[in-house]
Amino acid sequence: MTDKSTSSASDKAHFGNQIEEIVRRSGSSFYWAMRRLPEDKRRAMFAIYAFCREVDDIADEPGELEEKRAALAIWRGEIERLYGEQPRHLITQALLEPIERYGLLKDDFRAIIDGMHTDAEESVRIATMADLEQYCDRVASAVGRLSVRVFGVPEDLGIKLAFAQGQALQLTNILRDVKEDADRNRLYLPRDLLISHDIVTDDIEAVISNPALADVCELLSHIAARRFQEARLLIKQCKREQVRPAVMMMEVYSQILEKLMTRGWHDLSRPVRLSKFEKAWTALRYGLF
Known about the structure:
CATH superfamily of the largest domain: Farnesyl Diphosphate Synthase
Distance between the termini: 48 Å
Number of helices: 14
Largest sheet: 2 strands, parallel
Structural class: mainly alpha
Helix content: over 70%
CATH topology of the largest domain: Farnesyl Diphosphate Synthase
CATH architecture of the largest domain: Orthogonal Bundle
Oligomer: single chain
Strand order of the largest sheet: 1-2
């Protein structure tokens, strides 16, 4: 007869290994940022990332809108089962222990799915700066709120850090991908900000080609830079070992934002990315600080 505790430990290791492989195959710098965490925290973070990767792929990959909505609804139901301690999916099974150990909140998982509903639409338009902040909160800050609970950051401080860093990272993503998103009929630059710069057309190609768009991007880049600075000040209030992975991720994106601001906003087709050496140096510098 197999000992129950031995079987449970074996199952946990099996789930953990499968989830880690999902994260490793994604090629994200997230994998290396989390590798130095203690085992329980590392497995928790990998499970959170695997969930995010799963719902993000639903939103981003080709497919019919109704099929995407249905797939996201299934995940919404799976989160309900997770918090009823009856998860069915490999990823939610891997999340069961982290939500109990670290107090991960259902509302944050729901918020991430809400953000993916926005991305899954056939066209994306953001009406106001407040809507943009809410979108960034759903797809980035909510992930941060889950993460800081795993890291062990005090709750009030963690919520503030998740907000500032999530906004900074997602705004950087948006600014990096303006042209690529436009090619997919997605425009995350808010309409009220565009109108304030006399860009009043609803035609996405006309928006992208408008010379005034450079000023819109420049303004958003300064907001992102301010959020990075806010996050750094909050990090100084944390224990270094708690936030080392967050710092690594933040500094990768901060360098991308700096490169974008140096490149400027008049030729959005010019790609901006970090070299393998720059990523490795960032991992070494901030992973050991």
